[in-house]
Amino acid sequence: MQRKFKLIRELDEKCAANKSVVQDCHEGIMAGAHKDSVLQETVQKMRGLHQECVTWGDEKMSLAIQAYDMVDNRIRQLDLDLRRFEQELATDPKFKESLEKLRGDNAGAKVGSGRKKKATNVSDLDVEVDPNEPLYCICRRVSFGEMIACDNDDCPIEWFHYGCVGFTDNKIPNSWRCPKCINK
Ligand code: ZN
Ligand code: ZN
Hints:
The protein folds into two domains: about 1-90; about 130-184, 2-Layer Sandwich (Herpes Virus-1). Helices cover about 65% and strands about 5% of the residues. It has helices at about 1-30, 35-90, 95-130, and strands spanning about 145-150, 160. Helix 1 runs antiparallel to helix 2 (about 35-90). One zinc ion binds near residues 180 and 181.
């Protein structure tokens, strides 16, 4: 593998060297440094160099493909090994046992977290019910949900839960007095 990469690099270097020679020839031609007879020769030389580069390019390509195949084979081999290893583990009673134990632990953890969650919920409720929060309604609880106000300005309670005084959300009278004020 290492060797192939080295070969590719060497080919790259050779190609670069050829390129610079071609570049020199090209510059020479442009500068008119060559006589016609020499020019023909130079063009021939350039063609040869170019052909070399093309050949090396093909070599590089095949080397790259070989390298790719090597990697591919290695991956396939690893894949196979992994599968074999998994099968061995699956048939190993010791492994099975530890796997089941692991699963059991997980189940236990789930139950534990469930309990914890419930406990948190309770404490959440405790936070919600502030002891200093004013109490309303005939039920003497804190305000929640939809509430209706008593029309008596001097009502000792003022606000009532819909449910506690027999209302549903869409059946609210325009004026209403609570049970304590209804006869005042
Ligand atoms: Zn109520
Ligand atoms: Zn009232």
